[in-house]
Structures are given as C-alpha cells and as structure tokens.
Design a protein that fits this description.
The protein is mainly alpha-helical. The chain has a domain of about 210 residues. It is built from 14 helices and 3 strands. About 25% of the residues are buried.
Length: about 375
C-alpha cells in the first residue's frame, strides 16, 4: 500500500508580476484556489498561473497534512523496537535449540550426533538456526500484515491502516536482517570448523562459496536446500527495498513486483523443511510449520476474492470483453489454485502425512563435521 499522493499549495513567488496601474475587477468570483495536481514523476503542477507555462515544480519532502515522507532512513529508525523483539525471540529459540540438542530430544542429535556430544563447540551453528527460525517467523508476520492491508480487514483488528502499513514495512526490513544474520552465522560456523591447515583467507573463501554461491555447498541435502535459501535471500533484499524507490520506477511497476514477496516466503518454508534437521522427522515441531501456513493460505484466498483495490476484483465473465478473457481466465485459475492449496494444507494436517521422515536419510554427511 502506498501513501496518498502529496499535494502542495500554489507558489506565490512564481506567479507572474502584476503590471502597475489601477486595480481591475477579478475575472471570476473569489473562491478557494484549485489544488495542485500530482504527477507520476513525483512532482506537482500548481494551479493555472502558479508557474510560467504550467511547469511542474518539485514536490516537497512531506506527505499528507505535512507529515514526513516515508523513507528508508525513517523506517530504519522506527524498526528498532520490532528488531529488539526479534532478538529476544531469537535468544529464546537459541536456548531451546541448545537444550533440545544437549538432551538429544532434537532430531538434529540423530542426524549429527557429534553436535550433541559437544554442544559448546557448535554454538554458532545453533545461533544460526535460531536466527533462521526467527527470520521465518518474521517473514510469516510480514506476509500476514501485507495480506491484511491488500485484502478485507477484520473489524476487530486494533491497528489502524497507517499503523498496519508501518508495521508491515518494519517487519519486512527486520526479516531481511534476520535472513542475512542466519546466512552470515552459517558461514562463520564453517570458518570456525575449517581445516586447521588452511589459511584464514582460504577458509573464508570456502565458507563464502558454500554459503552464498548457488551450487557451492555439495554435501547432503544442502545441495538443494541451501540454493533455495539463497534464492529467498537474494529476492528478499530487492523486493523489500523497492518500496523506497517506487516513485522512480512507478507505482504500478512496484505493485507488480511486490506481489512476488510471497515467493520469498514460500522459498523460506521450503528451505526450512528441506534443511532444518529439527523438523526432518514427524512430530509437533514439523506439524507446527505446516499449521502456520493455514492462515497464510486463507488470507491469500480472501485477498484474491475480495481485494482492497476495485481494479483487481474479478468481474463476471459475461461482463468481460473478449480481448480480456484470457487474463480473466488466468486470474480465475489463480484463485482456484490457492483454494486447492488451502484444501491440501487441511488434508495434510488432518491425515498427519506431512512428508516427515521415519529414519535418517542415506546421506547425512555435513561440512560441519571435521572430526
């Protein structure tokens, strides 16, 4: 959602000078000055005569009613409390992961028993996992807030529209930060447990390739799962920051690109289910991940069936011109697909068949093990 276009008052200094002479009667009755007209380029055109030849004048860096225009800097300032909450939850997750692995209650201890034998030696890996889980949680919150903004909003929701939009932006920024921290800590863990005979720069380069270059990680399930996570990171950064340059790329282009944020979330969930060793097996931890997808699918379907923008609503097929029917068919198919996904999620939760393993996979090798 974008803030309403800015309006500016006429600039009196740019008005043509009045020639000397006796005053003459006005051509029209006094009344309110016409409002400025917003232009797509982020400038405003004053009323006729406000600038010579109607030349556009730069819009002020203020929003409606004189409020400051939303910028990346202002949202970074506003995101501190949200980020602090994310760090507290990450610390709690770190303690939970550590305790579960130390007590061998986590399936990670089955897949990588050397970590349970010496949990203190792998604290960076546990911290990376904790940041990964909090990143997934914050991505979930961001998507839910976005769907509430663009679809029907419950009347019982205590947040106003502007507050909901600002929270959506700050959680988005913190999601990017949490994903980046997850990846950086993963690389730091690889450096820490690299071969002692390697020079530090060789170990750093190997860790960079395995963590940030698609195809660089070549052991176990990470061959697929890590490129999926990398795709989520590399899409989240531009898609999350495009909001702050939407006046340059155009609001329509921004709205089209912003819809792909849901792809980042899907990739994050897929990465978690593939590589999160604590959710490899059947159990409440894995079931919780699936359960969290129900609200997303339900809100997404509600957003498609009743979007906030009138132009995005699906008209009756009989009222659709012939040339627009292929687009109508594609949009209808999208709604049917999301409804089918919602039905599959319900079936998975009811049946308990969520793809969890009954035993470790054949290849449990890990570059974290340098024994």
């Amino acid at each position: 959602m974008q803030p309403p276009p800015e309006r500016t008052a006429p600039d009196a200094e740019n008005a043509p000078a009045t020639p000397p002479g006796p005053p003459r009667a006005p051509d029209r009755a006094p009344g309110p000055e016409p409002a400025a007209v917003s232009t797509p380029e982020g400038t405003t055109e004053g009323p006729p005569g406000g600038a010579p030849g109607g030349t556009p004048v730069p819009a002020p860096r203020t929003g409606p009613a004189g409020t400051p225009r939303v910028t990346l800097r202002s949202d970074l300032r506003d995101s501190w409390f949200d980020g602090l909450v994310a760090l507290v939850i990450t610390a709690a997750l770190f303690a939970l992961i550590w305790a579960r692995i130390k007590s061998r209650a986590s399936s990670t201890a089955t897949v990588m028993p050397f970590m349970a034998d010496d949990p203190g030696g792998y604290w960076l890996y546990f911290l990376s996992q904790a940041f990964g889980w909090s990143a997934l949680l914050w991505a979930w919150i961001t998507v839910v807030l976005g769907l509430l903004l663009s679809g029907p909003r419950p009347s019982w929701l205590p947040l106003t529209g502007p507050r909901l939009e600002r929270l959506h932006r700050t959680t988005s920024l913190n999601t990017i930060a949490l994903i980046a921290a997850h990846a950086l800590l993963f690389a730091a863990e690889l450096i820490r447990h690299s071969d002692e005979s390697d020079a530090w720069y060789a170990a750093a380069w190997t860790a960079f390739v395995e963590s940030f270059v698609p195809g660089g990680y070549t052991s176990g399930t990470g061959r697929i799962a890590i490129p999926v996570g990398q795709a989520a990171l590399y899409l989240a950064i531009p898609l999350g920051l495009l909001f702050y340059v939407r006046h340059r790329i155009g609001p329509k282009t921004w709205r089209v690109l912003h819809r792909f944020v849901i792809v980042v979330y899907v990739l994050s969930v897929w990465h978690t289910l593939l590589y999160g060793t604590n959710v490899w097996y059947d159990g409440w931890f894995r079931t919780s991940v699936w359960l969290l997808q129900l609200p997303i699918a339900a809100l997404f379907l509600a957003r498609l069936l009743s979007p906030a923008r009138r132009s995005e609503r699906l008209p009756a097929l009989s009222a659709t011109p012939g040339g627009a029917r292929p687009l109508w068919t594609a949009r209808a198919a999208g709604r049917i697909t999301v409804a089918a996904v919602l039905a599959v999620l319900v079936a998975v939760l009811v049946s308990g068949r969520d793809g969890g393993r009954d035993q470790p996979p054949a290849d449990t090798s890990s570059t974290h093990n340098h024994d």
